[in-house]
Batch of 2 targets.
Target 1
Amino acid sequence: MISRVSVRLISRRCFSHSAVRREIRDIAELPDRIHPKYQEARNNDLLTLHWPSPPRNILITKKPSAPSITTLVIEYAQHIHSTYPSTNLIFRPATAHEIQCSLPFPIYTAFENRDTENDPGFQDKVDLICTLGGDGTILRASSLFATTDHVPPVLSFSMGTLGFLGEWKFKEYKRAFREVYMSGANAGYGSALLEDEHHHGNETHSGAAAAQSEHNLLSGWSSIRGKSMGPGRGARVLLRNRLKVGIFGADGQRVTEPETETAGGDVYAMNEVILHRGIHPHLAIIEVFIGGRFLTEAVADGMIVSTPTGSTAYSLSSGGSIVHPLVPSLLLTPVCPRSLSFRPLVLPANTPITLRLSEKNRSEEVEISVDGVRMSKGLRLGMEVRVWGEELERETHGLEKHEKTWRGGVPSIVRGSRSGLGENEDHWVGGLNGLLKFNYPFGDDGASQ
Amino acid sequence: MISRVSVRLISRRCFSHSAVRREIRDIAELPDRIHPKYQEARNNDLLTLHWPSPPRNILITKKPSAPSITTLVIEYAQHIHSTYPSTNLIFRPATAHEIQCSLPFPIYTAFENRDTENDPGFQDKVDLICTLGGDGTILRASSLFATTDHVPPVLSFSMGTLGFLGEWKFKEYKRAFREVYMSGANAGYGSALLEDEHHHGNETHSGAAAAQSEHNLLSGWSSIRGKSMGPGRGARVLLRNRLKVGIFGADGQRVTEPETETAGGDVYAMNEVILHRGIHPHLAIIEVFIGGRFLTEAVADGMIVSTPTGSTAYSLSSGGSIVHPLVPSLLLTPVCPRSLSFRPLVLPANTPITLRLSEKNRSEEVEISVDGVRMSKGLRLGMEVRVWGEELERETHGLEKHEKTWRGGVPSIVRGSRSGLGENEDHWVGGLNGLLKFNYPFGDDGASQ
Amino acid sequence: MISRVSVRLISRRCFSHSAVRREIRDIAELPDRIHPKYQEARNNDLLTLHWPSPPRNILITKKPSAPSITTLVIEYAQHIHSTYPSTNLIFRPATAHEIQCSLPFPIYTAFENRDTENDPGFQDKVDLICTLGGDGTILRASSLFATTDHVPPVLSFSMGTLGFLGEWKFKEYKRAFREVYMSGANAGYGSALLEDEHHHGNETHSGAAAAQSEHNLLSGWSSIRGKSMGPGRGARVLLRNRLKVGIFGADGQRVTEPETETAGGDVYAMNEVILHRGIHPHLAIIEVFIGGRFLTEAVADGMIVSTPTGSTAYSLSSGGSIVHPLVPSLLLTPVCPRSLSFRPLVLPANTPITLRLSEKNRSEEVEISVDGVRMSKGLRLGMEVRVWGEELERETHGLEKHEKTWRGGVPSIVRGSRSGLGENEDHWVGGLNGLLKFNYPFGDDGASQ
Amino acid sequence: MISRVSVRLISRRCFSHSAVRREIRDIAELPDRIHPKYQEARNNDLLTLHWPSPPRNILITKKPSAPSITTLVIEYAQHIHSTYPSTNLIFRPATAHEIQCSLPFPIYTAFENRDTENDPGFQDKVDLICTLGGDGTILRASSLFATTDHVPPVLSFSMGTLGFLGEWKFKEYKRAFREVYMSGANAGYGSALLEDEHHHGNETHSGAAAAQSEHNLLSGWSSIRGKSMGPGRGARVLLRNRLKVGIFGADGQRVTEPETETAGGDVYAMNEVILHRGIHPHLAIIEVFIGGRFLTEAVADGMIVSTPTGSTAYSLSSGGSIVHPLVPSLLLTPVCPRSLSFRPLVLPANTPITLRLSEKNRSEEVEISVDGVRMSKGLRLGMEVRVWGEELERETHGLEKHEKTWRGGVPSIVRGSRSGLGENEDHWVGGLNGLLKFNYPFGDDGASQ
Ligand SMILES: NC(=O)C1=CN([C@@H]2O[C@H](COP(=O)(O)OP(=O)(O)OC[C@H]3O[C@@H](n4cnc5c(N)ncnc54)[C@H](O)[C@@H]3O)[C@@H](O)[C@H]2O)C=CC1
Ligand SMILES: NC(=O)C1=CN([C@@H]2O[C@H](COP(=O)(O)OP(=O)(O)OC[C@H]3O[C@@H](n4cnc5c(N)ncnc54)[C@H](O)[C@@H]3O)[C@@H](O)[C@H]2O)C=CC1
Ligand SMILES: NC(=O)C1=CN([C@@H]2O[C@H](COP(=O)(O)OP(=O)(O)OC[C@H]3O[C@@H](n4cnc5c(N)ncnc54)[C@H](O)[C@@H]3O)[C@@H](O)[C@H]2O)C=CC1
Ligand SMILES: NC(=O)C1=CN([C@@H]2O[C@H](COP(=O)(O)OP(=O)(O)OC[C@H]3O[C@@H](n4cnc5c(N)ncnc54)[C@H](O)[C@@H]3O)[C@@H](O)[C@H]2O)C=CC1
């Protein structure tokens, strides 16, 4: 407890450089993350979010180099801190440094120079992700969890430049956060939850965080409940399938991307993986295999393997169909293929896809990008990229009905309309029409044909 | 029994007109159909066909008005009859009349003038469908089962004009039929099967067919087994999702298509349902709703709602993506839309889609076609077409592992390569490359770029 | 003169049925048409309209069965009649009958029961066409001149349902008409024009119309000039290439379409000619020849041969590129081709294109439509459709510079912006962006990305 | 003369390094180039090549780093040298160094270290270009003439990897060269030609080349004529429009690309100019103006402005229509636009098009490529790329009919079929079907549907 007090004192002297360093705490100090459940609702493809106990560790990410957004991030953080005092706010290192002086309470980060093998990272601690920015901000946040199949739920606010994935408008942030925070805290199994929370707490909390956990029990849901619109209303979640990308060297070994800290492992992508000729002037020649069988040789600027979520991103620009995020599939879309007959394909999500550089390829390598971020090393002859759709698993084994849950994907909190039934597709249909100008009518004012 | 004898005699005098009539027997005389099981195989999205007892009632359909195919149908029928004496051959009425004189044994049909409410039809009797023709022949055969969710397995031979859905070449017919006939007749539950057959026989056979059933027990699998390539080899089945189409009048009541005998019910389509302006010169204006919510107003020649199977048919010509038949989805593809921004959509199979004529539409009605067959009445103002993807159900409840099965869809017998692993996609990838000339390489001979 | 007076008297008794008949006069009574010149302007691909003498015979066409437009037609006619008293107003027969009682002066038409071989038709008499309606109205008006290569200039007003070809808004009609009427009436060659007019008049006028011609000389331009914005301002004209369609029987003879009165001749289309399977369920199979050489066999719903003007009509919906109306070319665009590799083609305007039904085609005939109007007879085996781009000819031979002119095409009066240079493309670029929503930006309000 | 003899001697000692240097002569020594005429033929859009006197200076270019092609280049050069002794063979510097030892006669080049302002280059000396390689080789050869509007005729042989622009097969090289060499040397104006040649010779030849010119008069056409297939047969030429690209700095001044030696001038492209995001991960944002007027803001990977010739290159891969090389037009095709409604446009060849980086663009610059070659500097904010179609001019002023000619474009020698009429489109239609697999039929063998 002493350390916390001193930090608070120090934070008032934020102009002092040495003080600043201490104000940003190590994420390792936080209790371990809480895994919510995602339960099926009647007549609805969206799931309902159920916290076993109130979320505590909130990651807030933002679009970089946009000062106006930084201001709003501070406003947001202050609101969360004062309304939900038992929560801890986590930021990416750069953001933490940028805003810590503006916040009169300690914040957390996963320091970049930590031992990534042993020290905990975001994926060990974050209960809930909040993003303030555009689609890129959501993609970047999701890529912090590129090596785990348990991504925390994502509450995304689109800011100005409207994105397709960003569900909420910033001005709704109070209602939105409350809805997510309270989700699943319904009277019905209140006591069970409390117990569960106790149990959970004992097991996972440690050090300075343990006391805080106690505090949660008192100040968490119960203190908020009065403000809530009713305990039974759950936040709705769209589980967005990702795809898993593994890069293999000519020796058959996995190639590691040092920057993403994926020690020898595969990474998940929310939108897509792309091979592209990049700066090389000549057409890339890429061999495509599906299910282990040779499908075709693409002579093209590049090849995209996309999730349904990514079907409205690069794949769309390259002529792919728009695929609803709930269709379990992968899209194979060529970029500027030198062919009249390379129609985009939609494959079952569980089809393994392999991409190799052809021996006929004229440059030494082609670029590999995951969710719009280029990897430091390209694909060379002999190497291969292997892609699988992420399998969303329904965990049912030995569970009571209300305990069944889903796992995998990016659990995206969907903005609900107040009215009920049949409005579930709101967000997607709304995005098609409102943002992508899908089938936009001809005529003078866009209103009538 | 007397009548049967006389029929046989008469059949030798096929030139006699009155005799001919009697030679074609009523399908009602046949034992009820046998429902096979479709079981999951390891590492394979295809299912394995398991007959509880040997199939008996074989429907053979063919492409109409193609004399050369008629000759092959006769050859095929004679082979089945002589090699599998306990089978009964069923034909559509027109085909039965066309070929009966060429066959020295009785054949069966469902007479057109029967009481469709009470008298049994193809869906009550057929164990196995064999089609000789092109994709149209398969579509027509499947539409004989447009009102049931238990379509018999389909063994399709493509004849000359090669189709995408037709799996087998005619010259393979002996091997193909044997493989299907024997499928699942493995040593393991041989005796159980015999018993089952007894039981089944007693329960369902009736009248003249009962004696024949006994014959089956002796002459069925056991008599063939020696010729088989080994009892354990099962035919592989691709369950092709259909979609269900209901047409509703302005009064909210289902509209019946008299010709398809769908008394007040919905029909299933294997490829697609299409609304099209048809002969009307002006663009059709159609409102599209998904999940009960307004999606868009299509100003177009027409609108296609297609299954993944149909993604290589009309939807392809209209610019839709190619969707693998195992992706549980529906395609919404406009035909010549008067819009720059109507990109084809791929929706979850369980999304209900509704199409309505807009009040702005200038003609009185638009055509409705199901699998390429135009309905006798078009869609008028106030009416609506409702479409759902067929749900393939996995029946597991209370069943032993080997009893679990799938239901729904069109169970299509896939032509397997002899080698095993990884070759499962053969038929589809092969069709893309070999038939649709997918990503056909530029260059002088199509072999090198 | 007597007859004219009596008509005037009679017109006051329009309720009398017999009187009505006489009030609509025969177009034959009018003086022959005046052919304007189209001269090149500096730095400008648009031409300038030059009347040798004021236009007299004005054809007004309208969208059928739209009562609100009929009212505006009457307003328009009354304005022309009272402001330009020396003009005569011509209508299509149905319109003439519909509105004559509302107009207190005689109107003209080409009666449908006239001897089309010998009696003059619209193409012999009309100086200027005004259309009130949408694109269809312009197409229908243009098709009244489908057999001549001298289409009168077209002043088109779009009414409500905005069209792409309609240049002017109805509320601008006074300015628009004055601009066109005065176009070329500049001081410079005023007297020459008067002479020309005399000459022309003597040669061509006849009967009752001769006196009126005299009147023109006094009341034409000179009476209006004061109201004009200056004599030198010429209306700008976009010459829209048409294409010429000839249909030939199996005997090699031209087939005549009775309804369009094209006695044995070819017809011009402003948008396109289309072959389409129409009501036949099966794909049409059409052989395409260019320059006499076999190009390809289209297996499709249909084939479009389009002008650049038509590139924003049906061809657009079928996936064709947008071609600027000043590119001398023909578009060959398939409708729903059963091919992955049938990319639309743009050919030189002078390439002869021939379309034939293949022997493999399964229906007896395919529909032929010209500018959206289906011909009474379809294309059958052995017949062929031959298409050429209309050649816009520059008549220069032995002419002074200011006399050079262009001939052919549909001379469409373009709506000019007040400012000068560089704004010539206004109408087309404006139409792309404003009406077709070309490259419509993504984002919330369509204003920002 | 002495120097030449010594060179010959030296050439036998090609292993000596110093000797080698002298064997490659400076192109400045050659007589100035001869400009052929391109005359219109009846019923034919192709032109006929007419040499006023036999061509002398032959540039031979080849695909780099392909040893097998080098061997054929030597074979080709030896054939030309021995059969047409009055010709001089020119190579690019690298090729000259690569092959000189294999050729027992002097060859010419334009040395890279020459004073490009004052010393003559390829465009001053080359009469005829022969390319051995693929489309890239033709593009590179054409780019040697990127600053002149008089490109010599191009005789292109495609080697192995078949190209779309390469007309001839290498095995035809003897016939092909003879046909081009003799083209226009018809009896009719033989003597006039001789005179012309005298005259021309006096005027332009200089130094050591003068004597050679005399030799030409004797050994040129007259010596070959016997071998020719008849003097009247002219080589047919397709004039391929290029486009002209100017790059302007923020200061409004032209930016020079040092490598292409285009001192302050514009360059011509045969295929296209492309702006592309290149290595930058974010979408490029480019403003497009046509005719000085804002057309649209492209948010895309890039923008292509292409000639009709380039319509089968990158523009095709990006979804553009195929435009026949004789349609005077420019294509505006976006590369992967983030828009559902950016349909490719075809504009009149004389429309000026301007591309600018938007202020919203996120990277500092975008790549500029001309005919597949990236410029050393990209396009930055404030700069602009201006593009015009090259105007093919018909020079008629004061000329006799047979003297009229065309100027501009890349005069490409088309491979003629022996038969006459109607076969003119051979090369293009043949290329579509044979190489690009245009509308390639579905079905088993590509032969029947
Ligand atoms: N994604 C794509 O389609 C890309 C296309 N290119 C094209 O390549 C051209 C440069 O050619 P290379 O240096 O050989 O590059 P490259 O080695 O990448 O080959 C380009 C391909 O385009 C073909 N090609 C070039 N011009 C053509 C034409 N006018 N019509 C039909 N095919 C044509 C060539 O035969 C070759 O197959 C550029 O002008 C550009 O048009 C360049 C980059 C990407
Ligand atoms: N699926 C489609 O896109 C179809 C298009 N059409 C087009 O309609 C034309 C006939 O027009 P209507 O009789 O009014 O039929 P309609 O009432 O079906 O309307 C056709 C639509 O096309 C527009 N249009 C016509 N010509 C155009 C042009 N040159 N550029 C841009 N838009 C144009 C009209 O404004 C109208 O919105 C035909 O020439 C054909 O091009 C006809 C049938 C189907
Ligand atoms: N423009 C087009 O592409 C049109 C396509 N069709 C399609 O034809 C089907 C009816 O077939 P038919 O009665 O034989 O008509 P049809 O004789 O017009 O032939 C249709 C063609 O489509 C092929 N086909 C049918 N289903 C297919 C599938 N699932 N995948 C790949 N190819 C397929 C057939 O092999 C045949 O080549 C309809 O369900 C519709 O999908 C019907 C009309 C026009
Ligand atoms: N030509 C193209 O369309 C290109 C697209 N991209 C896409 O951009 C993504 C990376 O995004 P940023 O880093 O923000 O790059 P960015 O700044 O280039 O923006 C990409 C655009 O795509 C939108 N976007 C991203 N994901 C989307 C989705 N799933 N659905 C709809 N729109 C989506 C964003 O809102 C933004 O407008 C990549 O995953 C890739 O899909 C990247 C490069 C080129």
Target 2
Amino acid sequence: MTIQAKFERMGTDAAPGQEVRQQVGDIETLLRGAKLEGRQVDFSHGDVDAFTPTPGSFEVFTAGVEAGGKQAYTEYRGDISIREQLAPAIAEFTGAPVDAADGMILTPGTQGALFLAVASTVAHGDKVAVVQPDYFANRKLVEFCEGQMMPIQMDYLNVEGQAGLDLGQLEDAFKSGAKVFLFSNPNNPAGVVYSRDEIKSIATLASHYGATVIVDQLYSRLLYSGVDYAHLRAEAIDAENVITIMGPSKTESLSGYRLGVAFGSKAIITRMEKLQAIVSLRAGGYSQAVFRTWFNEPAGWMDQRVREHEAIRDDLLKAFRASEGFKVRTTEAGSYIFPQLPKLAVSGKDFVRILRLQASVIVTPGTEFAPFSDSSVRLNFSQDHAAAVAAAERLVALVDRYRA
Amino acid sequence: MTIQAKFERMGTDAAPGQEVRQQVGDIETLLRGAKLEGRQVDFSHGDVDAFTPTPGSFEVFTAGVEAGGKQAYTEYRGDISIREQLAPAIAEFTGAPVDAADGMILTPGTQGALFLAVASTVAHGDKVAVVQPDYFANRKLVEFCEGQMMPIQMDYLNVEGQAGLDLGQLEDAFKSGAKVFLFSNPNNPAGVVYSRDEIKSIATLASHYGATVIVDQLYSRLLYSGVDYAHLRAEAIDAENVITIMGPSKTESLSGYRLGVAFGSKAIITRMEKLQAIVSLRAGGYSQAVFRTWFNEPAGWMDQRVREHEAIRDDLLKAFRASEGFKVRTTEAGSYIFPQLPKLAVSGKDFVRILRLQASVIVTPGTEFAPFSDSSVRLNFSQDHAAAVAAAERLVALVDRYRA
């Protein structure tokens, strides 16, 4: 494949935050009715002004700058004293040991960790099992590495108490040679958590077929009432076959510092560090200091944050469920909700553009996550509560206006 | 190639800053004499405690944090108002227009820019012309992209008034199908600047053969007295065939913020943004604010910084040239010096380890930059002046001790 052809497949125009680069084009001819007034809400990412960064994060950053060269130039895999502080906390959270020296790497955001993990395990032509729907970058990472994608369906809308992963499809993928399985838990965009049984089955299958599992647990700390969360790495699976990715960028609103961490397989972490050395050298030196606030928040702060998000979720569910034809699964963790809209007279992608133009509501089109999700949209509801609810109501009103 | 085989070729153990991961092994058996006392100097990178960050950089970072979400979530290619501030300054410096909207991208460090540029132009099997010696990551980037490297020799030790690039070899590489040429100017590790004639010849050859040139000009602002610097992008070459990379990470001692910029070809910048979206999303949002100090330093501050580096260079040259058998080219820009040592009884790589153990002096082995540079070592002399000179003297003393 030529480099031009490779990049033509990797679109980002509909990616979150990139709306500014879209051309309005001929959307005007599709418009019905007048603009709905209201404060703009950008559901494509969380609002760090509504949910502000962890208390003390700026102060530890400042201390990092003051520490000077020692903090600016760390090992490529990150400052050892920070890794040593984090490892026990992460081990306790995930229920399995973490080796600070050889089994973890600090990265520029969880996106950085995800890229390094995939590019360190997938060579040209390798088969990779990827969930649909799942985080849009997963597919693009496999395409960039010129891997062969094997989609695994997740029927999240028609099940309860589980994510709805098609385990038969996953086994078939392993049987036909997939050596890597990549998924997010909680799922991005659907906000569902894999059941303990599903996680156990993934561990059993991956062990049986000797596959590596990369699990993106970015939102696993933002867990709602009554939900049981199972960590894959704590199940019966060879520790060298699992890479877990987390980061303080979302729940903690620390995205502006670009921090992520990957931990698990020492062999893969070693490759990831080699690659980081030529991709970005290291997570920003001063920013690394901000990790000191992670799993180290003031007492009660995280509980409060989870409760506030749960209250927004409840109100959005109400708004969507009150309108005929919406199908939506209750978010179990994280701040994404992924309603399926009723049948409209315009395509899902056009509706997303109309929503921005006529209602000042920015959402991410479902096709970013699965080819069959054209009728769904993703909202990150880590927003000002009242503004989010008002925006969801405008969305519902516009859906009514454009029904087929 | 399997992913394991691919990564086995990409070593980083001898890379700058990674000494902590080396095993001491059997080096003890090679040691002669006692330890030389003196303050440790780590020449593998600049000392940001000796040369501190641009005045005002922390203050604009702080303002970035205070700006909140707007600064945390920018376009993947970086905040537009920052690009608009930088573009005219960079255009003036390099002598050719820069398009803030479509012709530039902000990246996590210049390493980030270099990775994106190479991975956006080199596909599996593509031929790439790479200078020897040159920045060690260049070779590794081509290996990661599974390109085919075509080495171009630079005879920097035996020429004056030019870098000594073998233009015949470069033309042969283009003739045999190389579509990308990658080089640093000033050269890292040798500190030499390409003559105007050499730059003109590169422009002519690349234009004739339709090749893309990626030029890493990271150190081009740290230019010493009497040296003429030619910017490739200002020569007669199609602007769509050039990507120029710079950053405020070195001369300005802002490495801890991880900032770089690439500008030029709109088609390639578009690909680089698509790739950045899955590699790291964006340069750290708050860190991007620090760009506001770039090309915007207090009056006289940059001149003073250049003079101070030139004074250190002069003293190091004196120290090396006073010792028989050293060959060293005068650094013309940047803070690297790359002396060739006299014949020793130990390998270059072992001497580097001995130097660290017996003299508390850390340098980067020449083999990181070219396979034939085993007898050279690279020093980044952006250090405390007195400590750097004392360390260079210990290096000379150890060379005497280990002469063949």
